[in-house]
Design goal:
This protein is an alpha+beta fold. The chain has eight helices and five strands.
Amino acid sequence: MIEKFIRNLESNLKIYVGLLEVTLELNDFSSNEFLALSNYIENNYNHVVLQIFNEKYIVNTEHILSACYFAHKAFLSKINISKSKNIELLLYLSTNRQIKNAIYDFGLDYNNGLKQNYLICIISPQNNLEMIYLDLKKKITLNEIKLEIESKSIEKFYRIKNYFNITDNQLKVILKSYNLYKEKKNLLDFPLDDLFLALSDIIREKMILLSLEKITLNSLL
């Protein structure tokens, strides 16, 4: 499990994020069991969020950390879309206001084979991630595998680009801001590292717009 600390003094936000990748046997782990597990963690650890999601549309670790930050900031600012932080996390991962879509795209997929790799995210206001992790291992079998979300490929690039409806022009604007873009240069001429960095920045911008959209809606009420 990797652990990260996120702090924002302006919003008084302080969270510890634990992230690991596991293989789950979905025939042994129903949606009801996940709900029970999530409730157990919430009831036994103050203000802790547990979420399990697939990595299909995850760019990198920064994508997840940004979603953790904006989801928690939304609750602090009382502009949250969902009533629960673990659902709010999925909304920011997907940059989408539709809860049903976020759950369908990032949640447990029982229609695509029973044995799949998933990411487990633990968010806590205290530095007790290891304790929670050990408690989880007592509740379910965690077949932990190497974290692969930093991997890059052309197939992954286009899968994520298409899912988030990111255009070539949007990417070119970001690449220009890095002083990397040259006129008449095809996107595929850029190194994958630059393309994924641009993807990550655009998705973070979409998270910002999602939070601002909620503020705008509130101001109209």
